[in-house]
Each structure stands twice: as C-alpha cells, then as structure tokens.
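Internal QA ticket QA-208
Title: Verify multi-chain structure generation after dependency bump
Assignee: T.L.

Test input:
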Amino acid sequence: MTMKLTTYQQEMLDGKHGETKQFCMSKLTDFGEAVEATEMVDLVLVLNCCPIYSKDRKNPETAKKLAAYDLGHSALYDPIFKMKDAHVADESGTACGNDPYMVQFDKAEEKGYPWNFELPGKGSFKLDPEMVTDLKAGYDKLTEHGWLPWLSCNPYFNTRIPKMGEYAASSESSAAAYINTILGARTNRESPVNTVYCAYTGCLPKYGTHLDENRAAKCIVELDDEVRDALKGAADWAALGACIADKSMNRIPAVLNLPKNMGPTATKQIIACCSPGMNDPMLHLMGFTPESPTLEAAFKGAMPRNPERYKITMDDMVEMFQQINAIAPPPGAEPAKPVDIIVIGCPHATFEEIREVARLVKGKKVKEGVQLWVQTDTPSYHMAQHYGDAKIIEDAGGKIYHQTCMAMTPIRHYPKGTTIATSSYKYVKLGGGFGPSWIFGNPDALVNAAISGVFKPSGRWAA
Amino acid sequence: MEQKIVLTGIARSKGKAAGQALVNRQRMGWAFNHVGNEDGIVLVPGADIQGECVTNKIVVYPTVLGSTSGAISLYFKCKESMHGPAAIICQKVHDIDISGAIAGEIPAVDGLDQDPITTIKTGDWVEIDAPKVGQKATVTITRKQ
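Actual output:
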C-alpha cells in the first residue's frame, strides 16, 4: 500500500527541503508501509528522549558506559547531527522536546539527589561524569536545532497543550494517555525511533490510536459508590488506574461513576496505568474525556447490546494495593518497614503534589540518612521556588528537582538493599524486580516515612 | 528424525534470519531493564525465558509489554551492542516493536496461520524469509525428534 502524501510531504521526501527532512521522511514512509497507513498527519507536539552525544561510541570504555546509561536511542541521532540543515519547528510549528533524563544539569555535582547520593551503611551512587557531559552535549545540540528543552513527562500541562482533534507524537506513555484521554488530541504511545524523525519533519503516518476505530471502548468499568467516595491520595488514583487496566484486560475501557472533581493529579495518576497496565494510551473517563459525552460515543457507534461490564469494589482496591506492594517487597514480615528513599512525582509531580508535600513536611525534619525527593517539570519547579514551597521542602531536608526522573538513572546500580517508597504504580510495576525493593503508598504515609525512617501504610486500603 | 512445520504470516519488518527459538508465553518488552542492552540477558521476573540470552535467537512472544523505550533498546541491541535477537515472531507485533525491528534491521513476523506460542517450542530451529513489509513471510520450523 502506498501512502498518499501532500505536496509538501512529497517535496520533503524528494529532498527539496534539505537532506535531514528527506532522510527522516524516508524512515517514516518505511514505517507507514509496515503499519499500512494511507496518509500522514501534521503534529503539534513531539515528545522524545534526549540523546547522549558521545563523540566515540565505539571506544570500549565509552561503549561499556553507554550500555548501562543509554536507553538505546542516542545513536539514532548520529546521522542527523552530521547534517548541516537539521532543524525542527521552523516550517511545521511542531513543538519538540524530551522526557526527563539523568540529571538536573546545574546541580550535577551536588549531593543528595538521585544522580549523586549516599545511603549510610549501604553505599553510594554517582552518575558517571562522562555520561553527564555527553548528555549535555546532546541537549545543547537539540536546543541548537530548535527543540524546546523541557525535559519533562508533562509538557501538556504548561508548555504545549494540544487541543481536541490535533495530533501529537509522544514516546512518553503517560503523556500519550493524558493527551488522548483528557485533552482529546490524538497520539500513539509512539516509538522513540519514530519521534526522532517526526521532530524534523513535523509529520507521522496516521495509524493506531490516531484512528477512530482504535480509540473505541471495548468494555465498561464502573466504580462502586464506596470506592468513588474514598479516593483521596495520589496512590489511590494510581491504584484505581491499575484496577481499571486489570479489569479491562488490555482493552480500552469506558469508566463510569468517577468522582466529579478530579484535578490534574488525579487524572495524571489514573492514566499512568498506560504502559505498566495496558498497551493502548486511551481510556474513556466518562465526564472527563472530551470525545466521549455519551457511552455510545465512547464505543464509536459500535456499542453492543450488553457490553461487558466490570465493577471496582473496595476489595479490589485493597487487593490492588497489596498486589503492587508484593511486586518487589522489602525483606521482613512486619508491616512497618525501614525506608531509604521516598520519591514523589512519576509521572512528574504536579504543582498540587509539590504543595501537598510542603504542607505535610512543614516545620519537620527528614530523618538523617533518608532521602525525600520530589521531581517535577521546569515550570512547576520554578513556581515552587517562587511561592516558597520548595524552600519548605528543602528546609525540612528534602530535595526538589527538575529535568530528571529517578528511573532515568540506572537504578539497577543503586546500593544493594535499597528500599524505595513511592506513590507511583508505574515505578513499582516497571522498576520492581531489578534491584531495589519497592513500597507503594499515599503522600501522607510517604512523608511520615521520610520523617520517621519507617513506612507504615495509611488508612483505608491497608486495613 | 526431523519434523518440519511451515507457517505463513505477514512481514512487519523485512529480512531473512535463522536461529534457535526462544518462546516466552508472557507479553514482553525490550527496554534495557527487561533485556540487558550489554548482554542480551532476559531480566524480567517471572518470564519463561528469564536468564536466557536472546543474542542471535528467534524470540517468540504474544506482543509487547511496558515502555515505548523497548523500540530503541531493541535497535541498540541489534545495531550497537550486537546482542540483539536474529528476529522476532509475535501473535501481533506491536507498533513499538515494528519500529525497533525496522531500525535494528531484523525481520518481524505476525499473523501466522497457527499460533506461534503453541506451535514453536524453545530449541526449535527456525528460518524466516520475509522479503517485503506487509507481504507474505514464511517461517520454517525444524524440530529434532
């Protein structure tokens, strides 16, 4: 099948708009054939990974480091970095940027952060300086090409907000799910191979979740009233997302009986089940998803007479908390567990989450040797500096940082016996089993653990 | 005594390959913390092929699980660290893995006329001929009795 290209797309493919665009268009048209696309879509946003730009990848010492630090994407940029005419956004207007990576550049040498810390009696971890330098080289190169240096999971909150009907290409699964589910724009959980080429062309074959038929709900998941009324903390929302994914068994669900007031934290935490819990970056959260004012609309006009219907009960939520906490539990049978690291913000913490940590930790002190980390996007980081929340967290002995995410450091190489507590289902599900032990809980219990050094589950789900 | 089974499917990434099969009944991804970029060892807890090395093997699994970074990690293992599989066969090759296989220049096949998870056994010798994306691909399985 051959794709129908617009005049401009064909000109890019023919090389009339330079070497880079031609190179990237040929890669995208190859992919388009594999997924049987018939046309391309113009993109308003591309979210990808920043490369580690090493000058000599084949040097054995460097190659060894890259095998541990590189996600695998960096060499894809090499041919583009050699081209003289490589740039993004100028013609297309596509806002291009990257996921968080290993370090906050201006604090690379400071201690007490995921890239440089010590756990008393267990050991220490520090990012390799060559990798930091090479990542900065990649970041500078992209900035030179016109990329926006947001290094965040959440540019859709505050940097480029796609609107209903627009197209995006997000390799960040949670961003893809938020853009589809809450904003009504259209993106796949895009391959980070494609997003390199998307950035320089501003387009992508139309396939997958771009298409109506692949956005349709296939089943209904309904919350019990008791569950709906009990949801409160960031981990509750994340566990609810996990329950929805679990019940719908890797199909797109329409979710009924959600609370009326779900803000950015609640919605971000729910949709973060895409990737750890389900493959499609799309949920129809009835009352929130713009393209689904009715169930019929959620099913795209193909609603069966008796759609499969699942309930989420209090027992399901309790079981999900237990299940997540059983993925990589710290040793010992007692319910209260010593912790080393508390991390809040996967996906990146909203300003609301930062304020909550500040409120909970105000006037208290994080126990010596325990790390309290809040990770967020650059605008929210600076808001927290401006409004004083960052100072409260730092005065208590915690850290707030941007541009990075703990999981983007090689946590497999963290000191042996490290226990990490978090409100992120995604962290525990995707990170569990590769070194550290994981605890899953709500922000109040997490901050208490940072202060006391011991995690005790809070409230209703732990009962 | 040898048994030969010939299946036909659709090429999602083109190429020819031959190697021993590694069959994983669970969904799996190629991200660096799931299959080591530096050695090709499967790290996923609970996977049938945990601890096995994928290098030069034909890896058979239902479809993807987890991070989109599986695409780039598959590419990295095939083209940079040279610890990638020789090919992948799935019930459905997810778009993430299609792009990783194309970039890694290994064949990827799905849509077979029999379920690959139950038809192919770990240790079988598998040959793939997938000349053109979107077109017919042949998978020949040779099993020693």
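Spot checks passed. Chain A touches chain B at residues 1, 30-31, 33-36, 49, 57, 63-64, 66-68, 70-73, 75-76, 171-173, 188-194, 207-208, 275-276, 279, 412, 430-434 (CB under 8 Å).
Status: verified.
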